[in-house]
Amino acid sequence: MNAVLISPSATPPRPGESAAPASGSLSAAAAAANAAAASFAALTDSLDYLDAASIEQVRQAYRFADEAHLGQLRSSGEPYITHPIAVAAQCATWKLDAQALMAALLHDAMEDCGVTKADLIDRFGLPVAELVDGLTKLDKLQFNTREENQAESFRKMLLAMARDVRVILIKLADRTHNMRTLSDMPRSKWGRISSETLEIYAPIAHRLGLNQTYRELQDLAFRHLHPWRYATLYKAVNKSRNRRRDLVQKVQAEVDAAFSKIGMKVRLAGREKTLYAIYQKMDHKHLSFAQVTDIYGFRVIVPTVTDCYTAMGVLHQMYKPVPGKFKDHIAIAKLNGYQSLHTTLVGPSGVNIEFQMRTDEMHVIAEAGVAAHWLYKAQDADGTSAERLGTKWLQSLLDIQNETRDAAEFWDHVKVDLFPDAVYVFTPKSQIMALPRGATVVDFAYAIHSNVGDRTTAAKINNEQVPLRTELKNGDVVEVITAPVSAPNPAWLGFVRTGRARSKIRHYLKTLAQAESEGLGEKLLTQAIRAEGMEQLPPVNAETQPMWEKLLRFTGNRTRSELMTDLGLGKRIASIVAKRLMVLMAEHGHRPNALLLSKERYTSHETLSQGAVTLDGSENASVQYASCCRPVPGDSIVGYLGRGEGLVVHNTHCGVAKRLQHKDSERFIAVDWSDEPTRMFETGIVVTVNNGKGVLARIAAELANAEADITHVDMDDEVALDTIDLRFIVAVRDQNHLETALRNLRRTAAVIRAMRLTPQA
Questions:
Q1: pLDDT level of residue 608 (50, 70, 90 thresholds)
Q2: Under 8 Å CB-to-CB from 158, ≥6 apart: which residues?
Q3: What is the C-alpha separation between 293 and 4, in angstroms, rounded?
């Protein structure tokens, strides 16, 4: 047996080689090869695990797909049907059922051949049609940007996958074959497709435990993303492999002899780090190729779990273990179901070699992940161990979707959960929980239950009181303290790590802000409709119902309330909606008021129009005061409707606001201060002082005397200097209150200068 297995992408491309197929007609031999690849016979050998009726169903799907793709060619010049056959063959290696194989053969029929879902239901039944539909991208014409379309397509695929994991298995087989044949595509597309594979499909494969697919996708993406680096590294690994061959054979012989001596039955397989994994390690840790020591390793496959620990004992007697390089993933499995014992030993000539001990079943699950459910169906009747893999994460996708209707936001949440590194912590009742590395107490609370997360007030780690933003470490015992009156804090979004926690917090805050945003949206639309010459919005009654329904169809909202909320959150622009509403009102015989129209148009540039949004500080989530300029009552202000952020209020002189106005002027609206604000507002001041004992205390006392609350203080690091700048965030009632506080400070001994932190233009 060859002790070292070669990574999947074994042939390096020559950098700069042409990816286009050779011009001219195909040779007879090539044509014959194409015909063979395009025939059902190419698939038949892989289907021996299915019964005759299932094979016939797959054959029918092949005939349908062959007819649908007739005349279509791939970039390589091969008949298009060779691609669905290759995808189905990959699915057959995972022993997927007939429905999945039929969907694999038909996966491009809806997208590329004009076949409808109804056609597939008629011909092959609902389950197959649902699988194909889950794999079909959305119509690109529905979206303004490629990113929007892509985010929505991913959401559709992931939700289909959460309902039926076969969707993602077929998708990964599809992507793997596309990556294997990427060299036939135009060079200009390599970067985008490879990046997408690295960022999305490879992490999903890893998250579901499909390690073999994960490694292959990474290597293929690396090969096309950085061809020169790939080729250089490939040569270096080949050289190293030749140099180390004797060493590897020696280790293998010694290990074989040691296990034979105690009469233990083991299977030894070589493992070689993939080129991408080597490249990543060199890149992240700034190592040279010579410094990457764990390129080679061995897998020791044994009959039982107990044998894994015995095998480790045997190896530790042979070679010295490297301290801190032992991991027990059997007792505590990884999030994706992976189980093995890992130990790194100092082999002959002082070379570090990693050994992984696992059973046959663990090996199958390590390579095939969720696909192991089908591979193991025969031996494991209930398939419980394999079926459990990834299901918790898949369920969490549905939970996130229930709270997040926006596709880009959904994808942001999911991306967070694709990072596989985990920490393992305990509940007070010693139940173990796995969370992503960097997870905080709040993530832990939401992992238990969303109600626990929403009601969290404090927490203890190892019986010590800690802040909620504390990151968890392996082995921590975490106790969450809740209160019925407690509610999620928007500041939590700044430190939570899991997609579940983030989506739950956002959902709560959105629900809370819904009524406010709806009210703000109504104000904005009223303001916009006045500028079009209408005194007020049309009422909702039987007469106006058809008009509102037409408007909702135009905006894509389900209800009037949802439309107003979207306007308040900045997802829709009020002026555009108002113009459309005016067209619809004109169709129903309404005419604009010429006097109001003239007044609004001519006064809007001089002063705030009558429909301006009035702010008194009682607004919660629907209105934010910009932290770049921190406006207070009395300042000249403008309102910016950020996309999905609600109304953000800036000082008129703020540099950020001016840049936004230049780029996105239609999103700015008129805002004004109420005569009687209901709360204090934060703003920034800087106080330059002669450095000395007790200066900070005197400044703080003066601010307290002026009834200005200090919420934050910051100062320069150079404390040895004669003068120093103290920067405060203070809460004041209005501009006059701030001026009074600054005057008091200027009269204080040791103060050289006191001024407001003014926004830079």
A1: very low
A2: 168, 397, 410, 414
A3: 15
Given this model, what pLDDT does residue 5 score? 40
Please report how the helices 574-587 and 560-569 are oriented relative to each other, as an axis angle in degrees rounded to 10: 150
Q: CA–CA separation, 457 vs 480, rounded Å?
A: 8
Give me the pLDDT at residue 738, please: 92
Q: What is the pLDDT of residues 159-168, one digit of tens each?
A: 776 677 788 8
CA distance 718 to 73: 69
Quick one: tokens of 311?
Answer: 């095998």
> CATH 3.30.70.260: does it fit domain 681-756?
yes
Tokens matching residue 706: 């002026």
Torsion of CA 203, 275, 292, 198, to 10 degrees: -20
Is 112 among the residues known to form the active site? yes
Q: Which residues of 427-448 are buried (b: 16+ CB within 10 A; e: fewer)?
A: eeeeeebebbebbbbbbbbbbe
Phi-psi domain of 61 (left: phi exceeds 0; alpha: psi -120 through 50; beta: other): alpha
Q: Which CATH superfamily is domain 28-225 in?
A: Hypothetical protein af1432 (1.10.3210.10)
What is d(CA 142, CA 150) in angstroms, rounded to the nearest whole number? 11
Are 218 and 230 spatial neighbours (Cβ–Cβ below 8 Å)?
no
Query: Strands, DSSP E only, in 506-619?
Result: 613-615
Name the one residue in this structure whose structure tokens are 């992984």. 356
Structure tokens at 127: 């389950």
Bridge partners of residue 724, in order along the sequence: 689
Distance CA(167)–CA(183), nearest Å, equals: 26
Any idea where the domains of the chain sit in the sequence? 28-225, 230-387, 507-662, 681-756
Q: Encoding tokens for residue 313?
A: 């004992």
The active-site residue out of 51, 56, 67, 112 is 112
Strands 671-673 and 613-615: parallel
Instruction: Give the span between the Cα atoms of 384 and 372, in whole angstroms.
Output: 11
> What DSSP letter does each residue of 91-125 carry, written as one string?
HHHTT--HHHHHHHHHTTHHHHS---HHHHHHHH-
Beta strands in 349-413 (DSSP E): 352-359
Ordered strands of the 723-732 beta sheet: 709-715, 723-732, 681-690, 751-756
Mean pLDDT of 44-73: 83
The closest alpha carbon to 105, from 85, 120, 91, belongs to 85
H helix or E strand, kind and range, residue 568: helix 560-569
Among 268-272, 285-289, 397-401, 749-753, whose mean pLDDT is lowest?
Answer: 397-401
DSSP secondary structure, 286-353, as one string: T--GGG---SEEEEEEESSHHHHHHHHHHHHHHSEEEEEEEEETTTS--TT----EEEEEE-GGG-EE
Which residues pair with residue 669 across a beta bridge? 639
- Are 355 and 337 spatial neighbours (Cβ–Cβ below 8 Å)? no
3 state DSSP class of 418 = coil
| Cα 560–Cα 566–Cα 569 angle in degrees, nearest 5 | 145
Burial pattern 561-593, b for ≥16 Cβ within 10 A else e, equals ebbbbbbbbbbbbbbebbeebbebbeeeeeeee
Cα 531 to Cα 516, 637, 661, distances in angstroms? 23, 20, 20
The answer to whether 378 and 348 have CB atoms below 8 angstroms apart is: no
Catalytic residue among 97, 111, 196, 734: 111
Task: Compute the Cα dihedral for 146, 150, 156, 160 and give only its sign.
Answer: positive
Q: How far apart are CA 638 and CA 389, in angstroms?
A: 52
Q: Mean pLDDT highest for which of 173-177, 413-417, 583-587, 757-761?
A: 173-177
What is d(CA 282, CA 744) in angstroms, rounded to the nearest whole number?
A: 59
CATH code for the domain defined by 230-387? 3.30.460.10
